[in-house]
Amino acid sequence: xxxxxxxxxxxxxxxxxxxxxxxxxxxxxxxxxxxxxxxxxxxxxxxxxxxxxxxxxxxxxxxxxxxxxxxxxxxxxxxxxxxxxxxxxxxxxxxxxxxxxxxxxxxxxxxxxxxxxxxxxxxxxxxxxxxxxxxxxxxxxxxxx
Length: 145
Known about the structure:
Elements: H1 11-32, H2 37-57, H3 64-80, E1 84-87, H4 89-96, H5 100-112, E2 116-120, E3 133-137
Antiparallel strand pairs: 1-3, 2-3
């Protein structure tokens, strides 16, 4: 089987991916029913506002670097009106004014603490052909840590 990016994939891998997508779709439909694009956008913006308030209040006792990294994710979620946003390491590092590796480690630690959900790890690539990691804000009302 040939994937969209032109690479080959085995049939068992394709079926596994299809089963995972189907079960996720069924779970989402049972959980909240069908949602429109406007509903998803509104939820993303509302979640970003709640997280922004939470960061300003200092609820989680985050360091300055962690707050700057979380602020990047919050701002991107609000700007793009999406629940999941890509977080290019260099862009996060520039926003937080820290080295690239520090930004990447901070994203991972925030994910480990439950404040962010890592949807995709991303991958390296030569000459800008890599893919940035994708993160989503966790539910701000659930507590996170």
